[in-house]
Amino acid sequence: MEESGVIFGYSIALSPAMTGTDSLFGLLSTDGSRDEVEMVDEIGSSNHVLAAAAYSNGVYAFVAEYNGPQELQELGAFLRTLASVEQAELHTFIRDWGSEMKMTKTHLRVLEPLLADPKLPIVEIAQITGLTARRVRRLIRELEEGGALRFSALLELGAATSLPYIVRILWDEKAATYSTISDWLLKDYPLKHWETYVSASEPVIFSLLVANDITDLTDTVRSIRQNEHVTSVKVLIGIYHKFFSSYRREKFKQMVRDR
């Protein structure tokens, strides 16, 4: 996927438990008067937003982080008052919280070069830090097993032949749990599925998928709709997206600088 351009980079950040942050997925419905690139940049100008994208029919999706109800209120007010926004749909979503652990100065010493290049080999980290490769490997393993870090791929959705889209799925809460649906998506569409956001307040799931073309997209959506627990499926086709620096990553940088 790196060769095709779908994965264009990698990122490392602290787990939500390390910073106490909650996450938000949202959709902004607009009147369609704004330039997509400019609108995405304006959404991303909030230091809470870590990714934003333009979709079909004047809809914009975003993922954000916040600490506490005051920041959530401020973020919601910012998004609702953007020019051309007609409606804002905001969902705190369920996710792996990770764990909190105390990082030593040696842990941070090892992580400093990884901030610049998350793919850096163990041997090169050892050369930079002056530690043995064995010790570097042990320290990174401690952080991963301790649930303090998140490594992730940065996706250039729409690269090569991929067509990114979001499916908004409603399901029958009387017949199934959210994990029934999310696990099924992962199992049945492993090569098409990238991310799933499960609303903490409503029986709705937003899944980011990729298709080879419109025919492939249509076949997948029809297949999802046929699931016995699914009551509704709506589709948004991706146009443009952009990543922004996250609160957790900035907190991580500060910890490394202050070590």
How would you summarize what this structure contains?
The chain has 259 residues and is an alpha+beta fold. It has nine helices and ten strands. The longest helix is centred in the first third of the chain and has 13 residues, at 68-80.
Describe this structure in words.
The protein has helices at 16-19, 36-44, 68-80, 105-116, 122-129, 133-145, 178-188, 214-225, 247-257; strands at residues 7-14, 22-30, 49-55, 59-66, 85-94, 149-155, 163-171, 193-199, 204-211, 230-243. The protein has an 8-stranded antiparallel β-barrel, surrounded by 4 helices. It is of the alpha+beta class and 259 residues long. The protein folds into 3 domains: 19-95, Alpha-Beta Plaits, CATH 3.30.70.920; 105-145; 158-238, 2-Layer Sandwich (Alpha-Beta Plaits). The protein has 9 helices and 10 strands.
What number of domains? 3
Average of the residue pLDDT scores: 89
What structural class should be given to the helix and strand makeup? alpha+beta
H/E series: EHEHEEHEHHHEEHEEHEH
Strand order in the sheet with the most strands: 2-4-3-10-7-9-8-5
**What does the main sheet amount to?**
8 strands, antiparallel, barrel
Kindly report how far apart the N and C termini lie. Answer: 36 Å
Q: Please count the beta strands (DSSP E, at least 2 residues each).
A: 10
> Low-confidence spans: pLDDT under 50, at least 5 residues?
1-6
CATH-scheme architecture of the largest domain: 2-Layer Sandwich
Q: What is the CATH superfamily of the largest domain?
A: Lrp/AsnC effector binding domain/regulation of amino acid metabolism (RAM) domain
Shape: globular
Please identify the top-level CATH class of the largest domain: Alpha Beta
Q: Multimeric state of these chains?
A: single chain
Number of helices: 9
How much of the sequence lies in strands comes to 25-35%
